[in-house]
Amino acid sequence: xxxxxxxxxxxxGVLTLDDMRPFLFAxxxxxxxxxxxxxxxxxAVIHPEDQMPEIIKTFDETGVWHLPVxxxxxxxxxxxSKSSVLMNYRQILxxxx
Length: 97
Description:
Elements: E1 2-5, E2 11-15, H1 17-24, H2 52-62, E3 66-70, E4 76-81, H3 82-96
Antiparallel strand pairs: 1-2, 3-4
């Protein structure tokens, strides 16, 4: 997943490899491809102050594996992945077992 940002680092949308795949291997692709036609809005966004139960609920409701994280100024910080959340949770459980 790729974040598409404007000049102020605000999240414009996201782009996945699946979105780009048809154009990566096409022999008849135009020399100038307008990426703005492939950009999608993210299913949801996460903020740094969001609590883990809320984040997990967002993953469950959206069904996605990656969510963008933005700050209070709507600037893109990065992505959080469901797999990393689950791996960390499993590690915590192992430590308590």
